[in-house]
Each structure stands twice: as structure tokens, then as C-alpha cells.
Write a structure and sequence with these properties.
The structure holds two protein chains of two kinds.
Chain A (H helix, E strand, L loop, with lengths): L5 H6 L3 H8 L4 E5 L9 H10 L5 E4 L11 H10 L4 E6 L5 H13 L4 E5 L20 H12 L16 E6 L6 H13 L4 E4 L5 H13 L2 H4 L1 E3 L1 E4 L3 H10 L7 H8 L4 H17 L6 E6 L5 H9 L20
Parallel strand pairs in A: 1-2, 1-9, 2-3, 3-4, 4-5, 5-6, 6-7, 8-9
Chain B lengths: L3 H14 L47 H11 L5 H5 L17 H6 L15 H4 L1
Chain lengths: ~325, ~130
């Protein structure tokens, strides 16, 4: 009788981890929407669309400081339903004890990919009077994750068994102080991050500068850099991102381009397509992370058109660097 | 004396740095800018929510503490090179048991350097 824990088998097929390390083809990840009750059939429906076409599925942690079904519960659900979750953990809501408990608990269900974020402030949410925690900060959380993966809690107390973990973090190429962002990414890589998902960026030159800096300081080599793009249906959500989401600014020219087009949905799609082609053309970019506000098959259409992801034919990053600016 | 020192430290450091008496002062490595005045009390650099004008995500009219810290760590005169180099070091989680203590005493007796047994400072230990 085989008494080995099941996660030994499952981590051998962690495609997300393997691709981040091997760079055999561009890595594709997508964000799962948030859930507010009901049963898991709606999650199953989303997974049926996502799992075949991306390598990892990000599970958010009370995004924009709004309470939803928890990151831990949803990461376990996705794992149980056959997806490959990337469990995001923010520092805003829980202290070091609760975060470590979530990490160890999720890993016992075979969740392997974890992504550390500082987290939007409570003032970005709908319960602004909540207490903000930030007992750990982002880089410290990466280090705590590394400790758990080596078999000990922050206190030094041993775990029964080292969980297999693939650890990552985030960075924002457009937030001041711009000159420092690559050093901050390096700090997280030094603490154990093997992939870095980047904040949505509508300024191609800022993304280029950040990636170039990460190539120079070794971050791009040591961690898979995954710029984020977001599917919207019209100019309005772009305006919302610009005014309401901390750390994202959308140039007026970009919003106007979509607003003044004949078909806003199609123009929004083409904008994202240009961003994807531009990002994958930058040496040092390992893949793309998708956020989807549309849920109308745009993600699948794009992966098909560009030949990306598990179903795609495009085994190498794109060459066309100038598509975005042209 | 142990009760007098925290009071004295508070009187000196509150008006100059808006000191929050965390008891484990890192001002020297953060461009003489107190990270505990960051609304998220971040010890390892700015969050991703800094506004394009360099102001705080939480308090829009306030310059980001870490934007100031980064600038000062590079440009303030008289800061030793060693302190400037420590800017990007990974600082450990705050020891909340030291809140209200005099960081001067904790510096002297080494308490501010003690980290949990499981804390791994990452690769900088190997580099310096």
C-alpha cells in the first residue's frame, strides 16, 4: 500500500513551477473571480474554462479590501477540483500566526504556489473602519513562506514535514520611487521569491525600464517576471482603474482611444493584445498574468490567436517588440 | 533610570522623527525616516499603492514615507556609506513586545537585534 502523501505526486506535475524555472514556453496565469456564497458549482464552471488554457490560477485574498470567500478555502477548492492554484496572501488582514496557519493548512491539501502581497489598505474597501494588521510586510512574508517550506515556523518550531512550496511575490513597475522598484524586487527574490507578478501597467516605457533593471540586477534570471494585463469591455472600467485602484494609473490617451472607438469591446481587446505582444517581446519577461473583468471568452480567444498557454503552439516568446507603440 | 530613558527618548525623537517608540529603531538605515509612520508600518520599502505624485495611498496629502526615506538615504549629508548600503537589507518582523521600550537600551543590550529562531534573513547574510 502506498503511504506516501499525495502531494508528492501532485507537485511533480506543477506545470506553473516547472515553466517558471525552465522557461520552456511563456507561462500563462489568470485570476479567479471572487465568490460571495452559493455552492462550488459556479467555481467548477469557471475552472472548466480556465484550467485547460492557463498554467496557474491566482486566488485573491480579499481584493481591494473587500471581504469575499477566503483565499485558503478557495485555493483548496480549486486544488480539489483539479486546478493549479496560486494562493495570494496579503498582510493587511491577518497577523503572523494566522498567516502561517493558512500556509500550512493549505499546503496539507496540496496547494503549492503562494504569492505574497502587502495588500491594499482598508481605506480602499467597503469596511474602512476595519483594523489594519500588517504584522508582517511583503518581503517579510516571502521570508516566512521560505521558512515554512524549509520545515519551520517563524518561532523555529518544526513542522512535521516540509511542505513543497513554490513562492512568489508582486511588484509595481509604475509606483514611485521608480528607481527603487527593481531593488525591492531583488529584496523579495533574496528572501525566496521565484516568480514575480507585476501590477497592471499602461505605460509601456515604465514596464520596459523595470524589466531592463531586473535583467541587469539578476532578478529576471532568478525569478519569472509576469506582467499583468486586464480585460475590460469598455473605457469606463479603465477610468475606474485609474481613479479607484491604488497603484494603477491609466493615461488619458489610452482611455480616449477606447472611448472614441466604434466598438469599445473590440478596441479594449486589441489594446490588451498589443500589451501582451509587447510584454512577451521584452527579454526577461517569462509570461503573462491575466485579470478578466469581461468573462466573455476573451482570454481564450487571445490565447488561441497568439498560440499561448497549454493549448498553444507558440513555444517561444514573441519577437514583435514594437507592436504596442505602433 | 529604565523608566526615565524611554521618556527622554520620546521627548527627543517624537518632535524630530514622529517616533512611535517601537523600541527597535532602524532610522539609520532608512534615511533617518521612521518607517513606523507609514500607515501600513512597512519596514521593507514602499507598498505598490504609492500615488504617481509620490504621495501615500492611505493619506493622499502626505508624501509616502518610503519615497522620502529612499531619497534621504541617498542624498542626506553626513550619513555613513554603511548606513546607506543597509537601506535594502531585509528588516525582520517587528518585535511587538518591545513597543514602548527605549530603543537606546535595546541597542545597548542587543535586544533589538534578537530575531525569532525561525527567521531567515535571506541571501544578504551571505553577501555581507
Amino acid at each position: 500500500m502506498n503511504t506516501e502523501p499525495s502531494n508528492i505526486d501532485s507537485h511533480s506535475i506543477n506545470v506553473f513551477e516547472e515553466l517558471c524555472l525552465s522557461r520552456a514556453r511563456p507561462v500563462m496565469t489568470a485570476e479567479l473571480r471572487s465568490f460571495d456564497g452559493g455552492d462550488l458549482t459556479v467555481v467548477e464552471k469557471d475552472l472548466a474554462e480556465l484550467t485547460p488554457c492557463v498554467d496557474g490560477i491566482n486566488i485573491t485574498d480579499n481584493p481591494a479590501a473587500h471581504a469575499h470567500a477566503s483565499n485558503t478555502a478557495m485555493a483548496i477548492a480549486v486544488k480539489t477540483l483539479g486546478g493549479n492554484p496560486i494562493m495570494q496572501i496579503v498582510c493587511r488582514d491577518k497577523n503572523r500566526l494566522a498567516i502561517q496557519a493558512d500556509l500550512v493548512g493549505a499546503s496539507m491539501f496540496g496547494v503549492e504556489n503562494f504569492c505574497a502581497l502587502t495588500g491594499d489598505d482598508v481605506t480602499a474597501g467597503d469596511e474602512k473602519e476595519a483594523r489594519r494588521v500588517f504584522d508582517l510586510d511583503g518581503p517579510q512574508l516571502v521570508s516566512v513562506m521560505t521558512g515554512i517550506s524549509q520545515g519551520n515556523y517563524l518561532s523555529g518550531r518544526k513542522l512535521k514535514k516540509e511542505p513543497h512550496m513554490f513562492i512568489g511575490a508582486v511588484e509595481n513597475p509604475t509606483a514611485p520611487p521608480l528607481a527603487y522598484r527593481v531593488d525591492r524586487a531583488l529584496k523579495k527574490v533574496d528572501a525566496g521569491a521565484k516568480f514575480i507578478q507585476l501590477q497592471i501597467c499602461y505605460q509601456p516605457e515604465m514596464l520596459e525600464n523595470f524589466i531592463r533593471g531586473c535583467v541587469l540586477n539578476g532578478v529576471a534570471d532568478r525569478a519569472a517576471l509576469l506582467p499583468t494585463v486586464v480585460f475590460t469591455k469598455s473605457a469606463r472600467p479603465l477610468g475606474f482603474l485609474d481613479t479607484s485602484v491604488p497603484g494603477i494609473s491609466v493615461p488619458k490617451a489610452v482611455i480616449d482611444r477606447v472611448a472614441n472607438s466604434q466598438d469599445q469591446a473590440e478596441e479594449s481587446y486589441q489594446l490588451v493584445k498589443e500589451q501582451v505582444i509587447h510584454a512577451l517581446g521584452l527579454p526577461g519577461v517569462a509570461g503573462i498574468h491575466f485579470t478578466d473583468f469581461r468573462h466573455d471568452g476573451s482570454l481564450q480567444r487571445m490565447l488561441r490567436e497568439l498560440g499561448l498557454g497549454p493549448l498553444g503552439h507558440n513555444r517561444q516568446p514573441q519577437e514583435d517588440k514594437n507592436a504596442y507603440s505602433s | 533610570m529604565p523608566k526615565l530613558l524611554p521618556l527622554l527618548e520620546h521627548v527627543v525623537k517624537k518632535p524630530i522623527w514622529d517616533c512611535r517608540m517601537c523600541g527597535q529603531c532602524v532610522l539609520h538605515s532608512t534615511g533617518m525616516t521612521c518607517p513606523m509612520t507609514c500607515p501600513k508600518t512597512l519596514r521593507n520599502g514602499p507598498c505598490g499603492g504609492v500615488r504617481p505624485d509620490g504621495n501615500c495611498e492611505v493619506v493622499p496629502e502626505m508624501p509616502c514615507v518610503w519615497v522620502k526615506a529612499h531619497d534621504r538615504s541617498q542624498h542626506l549629508p553626513l550619513i555613513p556609506t554603511k548606513w546607506r548600503e543597509e537601506f535594502n537589507h531585509l528588516r525582520p518582523p517587528v518585535n511587538n513586545a518591545l513597543q514602548g521600550d527605549s530603543s537606546w537600551i535595546n541597542l545597548f543590550n542587543g535586544k533589538d537585534q534578537q530575531t525569532p529562531a525561525g527567521w531567515d534573513p535571506g541571501e544578504q547574510r551571505h553577501e555581507h
